[in-house]
Amino acid sequence: MVSLNKVMVIGNVGSEPEMRFTPAGKPVTSFRVATNRVYTTPEGERKEETEWFTVVAWNRLAEQCNQFLGKGRLVYAEGRLRTRSWEGQDGQKHYRTEIIANRVSFLDKRGAAPLAEGEKPEEVEGGEIEPDDIPF
């Protein structure tokens, strides 16, 4: 039987990435990504929907995301969906679906703030996405 669990999102980072370490010392970084959809209703009204995703990166990718991502940055994240469940202090069962990233590309230049006079922008190796890299 063939199966596939793959998801790709392009959106803006919603808050500063949070990096932590497992008891074994493995780095893990999580961050939220917002995607927007604009559509027109049958009545002609223009609407916009925002969908939020939690992205989780491990090891070297976690370190890079923590170093180069920040709130508002445009990002491409690719990976698989995983749903976790746990029982809260209130006894209720909680669920969270996350994207476990195997690839993250930084789509805008680092430091969107204006540069000081004479200052050069930093380049992030591999941070640019080429049209051939987009899988659709």
Overall number of domains:
1
Number of helices: 1
What do we call the CATH topology? OB fold (Dihydrolipoamide Acetyltransferase, E2P)
Structural class: mainly beta
Strand content: over 45%
Task: Summarize the entry for a quick read.
It is built from 1 helix and 6 strands. The protein has 136 residues and is mostly beta strands. Strands 1-3-4-6-5 form a 5-stranded mixed barrel.
Secondary-structure blueprint of this entry?
Layout: E1 7-13, E2 18-21, E3 27-40, E4 46-58, H1 59-68, E5 74-87, E6 93-106
Parallel strand pairs: 4-6
Antiparallel strand pairs: 1-3, 1-5, 2-3, 3-4, 5-6
Describe this structure in words.
The structure is a single chain. Mean pLDDT is about 85; it is low at about 110-135. This protein has a single domain, classed as Beta Barrel (OB fold (Dihydrolipoamide Acetyltransferase, E2P)), CATH 2.40.50.140. It has a five-stranded mixed β-barrel. By secondary structure, it is mainly β. The protein has one helix at about 60-70, and strands spanning about 5-15, 20, 25-40, 45-60, 75-85, 95-105. Helices cover about 5% and strands about 50% of the residues. The two termini are about 25 Å apart.
Task: Give descriptors for this structure.
about 140 residues, mainly beta
